[in-house]
Amino acid sequence: MKRTAEARWNGGLFKGNGMMRLGSGAYEGKYSFGSRFEEDPGTNPEELIGAAHAGCFSMALSGALGKEGHEPESIETKAVVHLEKQDAGFAITLIELTTHAVIPNITLDEFLVFAEGAKANCPVSKALAAVPIKLEATLANA
After folding, report:
1. Residue 119 CB burial class (10 angstroms; 0-12, 13-18, ≥19)
2. Cβ neighbours of residue 34 under 8 Å, at least 6 residues apart?
3. What phi and psi values does residue 7 have, to the nearest 5 degrees?
4. What's the chain's Rg over C-alpha atoms?
């Protein structure tokens, strides 16, 4: 499998602007210096990394649980991607995953083992292995 995305940037760094588009056509959004490093409208690469990570983690967790007979009713995951200025420029320094799942017939301790496994083994986590990833997981039994 190969997945694609495209970006176009027009102009200089501070006054320029761009557009990012998923190859599937499911998303297209504007980005700028202001939407990345300030609070201007638009998206940014870190927000898209967060969406990819939250989606990948949720699917990996669902798959691992299902293989062991713990079919989840729902899994909601939020990813917070920290972008910080450092001496050598900006860097992603931390990703915080917060997940809440509704799963019948599983203990919290069992669930936490599955959640940690998904954090370590989803393809996006593996791709982002250079960045510390923290996980907070909560469970509601159905």
Report:
1. buried
2. 40, 42
3. -140, 145
4. 17
* Cα separation, 27 vs 19, whole angstroms: 10
Beta strand 5-10 pairing with 74-86: unpaired
* Residue pair 135/99 in contact by the 8 Å Cβ criterion: yes
CB 116 within 8 A of CB 132: no
Count CB neighbours of 100 within 10 A: 14
With beta carbons less than 8 A apart as the criterion, state whether 85 and 124 touch. Answer: no
- DSSP structure string for 38-76: SS-SSB-HHHHHHHHHHHHHHHHHHHHHHHTT---SEEE
Which pLDDT value is given to residue 141? Answer: 79
d(CA 55, CA 41): 23
In tens, the pLDDT along 91-102 reads 999 999 999 999
Residue 16 pLDDT more than 90?
A: yes
Question: Looking up tokens 């998303």, which residue turns up?
Answer: 27
Tokens of 57: 């983690």
Beta bridge partners of 86: 89
